[in-house]
Amino acid sequence: MSGGPVTQDWEPVVIRKKAPTAAARKDEKAVNAARRSGAEIETIKKANAGSNKAASSSTSLNTRKLDEDTENLSHDKVPTELKKAIMQARMDKKLTQAQLAQMINEKPQVIQEYESGKAIPNQQIISKLERALGAKLRGKK
């Protein structure tokens, strides 16, 4: 140790909590406490606060475009001639829908949809049907 007298530092040390976060300062309790204590409170009105105008302004343009759009958007369906041709050719060969489906490696539901006219025409499936049934289903007979 050094030869001089040892003195202690008796300055008070104050330990505080960390400063409140921005969210805590905006808390209603904190604002009311500040009002009671007479502290200065700054209030700022935000532009477009709570109106959500950014989201609604662009949608009106989109809805107008949709309203003006008269185009009919739907999938192609199997034409009536093709439905009847598939059914006739299948009946001539004395095949069930399930047997025909098995011959062309498709599900029976596919044949059912083609014969009921609900399927979206697929040229690959139609050509498989033509080969399996031995009949021309597309174009002129």
Question: What can you see in these coordinates?
Answer:
By secondary structure, this protein is mostly helical. The chain is built from seven helices and no strands. Helix 5 crosses helix 6 (108-116). The radius of gyration is 40 Å and the shape is elongated. The model has no long low-confidence stretch (mean pLDDT 81).
Question: Key features?
Answer:
mainly alpha; 141 residues; 7 helices; single chain
Q: Write down the secondary-structure element order.
A: HHHHHHH
**Global mean pLDDT:** 81
Radius of gyration based on Cα positions: 40 Å
Task: Provide the β-strand percentage band.
Answer: under 5%
How is the main sheet built?
A: none
Anisotropy-based shape = elongated
- Terminal CA distance reads 117 Å
Structural class: mainly alpha
Low-pLDDT residue spans: none
List strands and helices in order, with pairings.
Layout: H1 22-26, H2 28-37, H3 53-68, H4 80-92, H5 97-103, H6 108-116, H7 123-133
Helix pairs in contact: 5-6
Give a summary of the structure in a few sentences.
The chain is an all-alpha fold and 141 residues long. 50% of the residues lie in helices and 0% in strands.
